[in-house]
Amino acid sequence: MAVAFPAAAQEQVSPDKAVTERTPEGYEAKGITLGSFVLYPKVEAAEEYNDNIYKSNTNETDDYITKISPGLQLRSNWNRHFLQFEASSEFGIYADTSDNDYTDYNLRATGRADATEALKFNGDARLQHLHEDRGGDDVSTDAKEPVEYDKMTGVLGGTYKPNRFSVGLTGTVDDYNYDDNATIGGGTDNNDDRDRTETKGEVRFGYEIQTGYEAYIKSSVNERDYDSQVDDGGVNRDSNGYKVLAGIAIDLDRLIRADLAVGWMEQDYDDQTLDDVDGYSADARVRWNITELTTLRGSASRTINETTTSGASSTIGTAVGVGVDHELLRNLILNADAKYYNSDYQGITREDDKYTYSVGADYKLNRNLYTGVKLSHETRDSNAAINEYDQNVIMVKVGGQF
């Protein structure tokens, strides 16, 4: 979703936070007080030019896309506990290729209950109606329109930290339901093969070495259960796996926050024709306040991801990203990002490298109005030339918040 609501407790300027997490005094959304809750309405409009909307390496098609994104957030204002409801949507309207028009929406409820100072519980329930642009890895090349799907997510967890030691438990369920879509030739693509439920359970043990440094170990198990016993190719894509990570969390408020972990992952498939996968795993996030006006961001990950590409059991995705935000003025923030993503398909000889670069600026006119601009370039290189493309996007947005 394009709408981004202000984070909780974000009203005060503080060098403890990243540049993009601060809101200068006089520019913060006040919201509408409703008893012990605050309602934050917001709407954003963006105009985008995309020179390759289908991410094709031949016969590139460009178009202008208008995006309208209204949203509401209702947030508790309690001293203890926390509860938040959110509803947002995005309407995408293409100037010349109306078959690509879409409507996404998001409904979400999150909460935290503080049983004691040491024991806290959290929950998250979410319903999303989303779309996949044509040109996606699992979208048929003859698709006439974007593939639409529903995703339901439920998360329940808790943490207990009576002293330097901590333990956390989290259970997550994601359910995917894909709609069939029309094809250019007049037929229909069957996307029921992609319907599935992914269940994951995670346990995390931590030890605070000293203030600001915590060593931890976390382990998770997962089950990926497809609704169809076999897909149209006669393959059963059900699987189960695990991941173990050891890492360190660093929280030096005015300087750096980081979470760095490495470990091992494995995914085993019920169908013998699909390759089992294992290898090292990684998950890293860094936020470094170089100065009070400049924040450097970094991330890296290595995961096993689902795919319905014929012959492939999955992809191993390796991602590395770096970004910088600079506060040129109190109400003007410049940003730049560079990202690399490698998709290594397991079971077939396909490997893709995707490079994304972007620069942008966000400008707050006052506490109710803001605007921004972003230029981005994306390139995908592949050992199969048909999967390669270049794409450039220019976006200008204006928004209102209350």
TrEMBL record:
InterPro entries: BBP2_2, OMP/PagP_B-barrel
Name of protein: Outer membrane beta-barrel protein
Origin superkingdom: Bacteria
Organism this protein belongs to: Thalassospira mesophila
Region called Disordered, residue ranges: 1-22
Pfam families reported in the protein's UniProt record: BBP2_2 (PF10082)
